[in-house]
Amino acid sequence: MNYQTTDGLVPPHGSPVLKPKLLTGQDLINAQQRAETLPKINISSREAGDLIMLGIGGFTPLDGFMNHADWYSVCDNMHLATGELQGVFFPIPITLSTDQTTADTLNIGDDVALVADGEIRGILRLSEKYTIDKAFECKTVFGTTDSEHPGVAMVLAQGDVNLAGDVMVLSEGDFPEKYPDIYLTPTQTREIFAKKGWKTVSAFQTRNPMHRSHEYLAKIAVEICDGVLIHSLLGALKKGDIPAEVRQEAIGTLIDNYFKKDTVVQAGYPLDMRYAGPREALLHALFRQNYGCSHLIVGRDHAGVGDYYGAFDAQKIFDRLSDDDLITQPLKIDWTFYCTACDSMASTKTCPHDERFHVKVSGTKLRKALSENQPIPEHFSRPEVLAILQTYYQNLAENDRHQVALKGHSAK
């Protein structure tokens, strides 16, 4: 389905318009009052993030959490199977779960209040209850059933019964207040791009502060497209990752000092990281299409974790798609590094020199060096960014020492 937009940006995925499920005004007030009288279930952090994305239209064209047929089809072949959306591409199942005892108290057709962190975030109109083969989901989506994989661990820990149905979203959680200048909805980014006159926009996905390789990737995209959306995950990460507040400060400093004005928009989105590697790269492209982006930068080990995926598996998976699956396209970029012989950033496609001249940069290496107070290799990161990160890790170490001291004192 080829839709047209009046602003020249790519259309939303699978729909001529965004489909936000977030209520406003009197509709919101009425729904909030009614939700207090409904049966309530607690939802996980991942599910709360998915609910907000449904609310702001980030998961257009979905209206709610997937039923069994859609869950199976998305796991099996990355396409929806039912209703008007039959055949529409979707790479990762968007599901909601609860325990068997709670599920037994709910009837098909019931409205159920969805609660996260003590706040009613939405209302689900229950259309189906079903169990799943968790191993099948893990194998198809993550490529592994290893419980050490953080995404697999999330699936294994979820409830035994999935609840399907359309949703009304009542809250975006604390994201608008916590990140007032960064948290943007697809409607807002599209308005910003249109105001700037951008037609082609590349998204740069990150869950880390940006080092020199990240900067280089974004600048390649600036050369190709009208602008770049540096789009950071604001939801939950795995232990050891750098908090969103620190990342946002570091990225903002990098943009202010090393990017030309009005070539970059800095923003964040409310999802938790799934660490699904190739499949998650496809999801990143899908919802960036909803945000108005024509391209997604896909570099080395996109959305990966550990050694579960090959360095460029997330690029190769796009080659499996048909022309009708996604409009947003990958910008595939090879290994990038600082070459001391070239005296500049380069990639394996542009640099003629031997690997001994290459300073290869990764977020994992940078975090490890910072957390262990090791010297940072020259050209690894910009000094203004390093100063922010070093302050964070110094404060972290001081807090750890303080906690150890308190435990020692209390043990006496």
Overview features:
five-stranded parallel sheet; alpha/beta; 412 residues; globular; six-stranded mixed sheet
Q: What layout of secondary structure does this protein have?
A:
Blueprint: H1 25-35, E1 40-42, H2 45-56, E2 64-65, H3 68-77, E3 97-98, H4 100-104, E4 111-116, E5 119-130, H5 134-142, H6 150-157, E6 161-169, H7 175-178, H8 186-196, E7 201-206, H9 212-224, E8 227-233, H10 244-258, E9 264-269, H11 278-290, E10 295-298, H12 313-316, E11 329-332, E12 336-339, E13 344-347, E14 358-360, H13 363-371, H14 383-411
Parallel strand pairs: 1-4, 7-8, 7-10, 8-9, 10-11
Antiparallel strand pairs: 2-6, 3-6, 4-5, 5-6, 12-13, 12-14
Helix pairs in contact: 5-6, 10-14
Description:
With 412 residues, the chain is of the alpha/beta class. It is built from 14 helices and 14 strands. Strands 1, 2, 3, 4, 5 and 6 form a 6-stranded mixed β-sheet that branches. A hairpin with a 2-residue loop joins strand 4 (111-116) and strand 5 (119-130). The longest helix is centred in the C-terminal third of the chain and has 29 residues, at 383-411. The model has no long low-confidence stretch (mean pLDDT 93).
